[in-house]
Amino acid sequence: MATAKMELNIVENYTFFVIPSWGHLLGYPTLGKYSNHNVSKISHDLVIFFSGADCSVQTEKGTFYYLFGLGYYYTKFELQSGRYITDNRQLTGLMLSDFVYDHLSTSKNVTLENDRDIIVSENLFKLPVDLSFKSDNKRTFIQGTLMRNLFIPYKDIILEFMETLRNPQSFQVDKTGPILLSSHEDSFNQILLSTEMDYEMKTKFLSPTAGLSGITLDSKKHLEQYFSYQNLQYIEELILKLKRVYSTIDYDPMYLFSILVNAALRLKSETSSSNVQKVERSNERMPKESIFLSAEPRMNSFVDWPESFRRRTKDELERSVVLVKSKIYQPKEVNKETIRVEEFGVEQEEFKIRSMKRPSVDIKILPIIPMSNSREILLVIKDVVNQDYDIKSIGRALEIARDYIRSMILHSHVLWEMSRYINLYQKVEPNVGLSSKEKFELGEKIEKWINLMSNVQTS
Question: Which domain holds residue 238?
Answer without folding.
Answer: 2-279+286-300
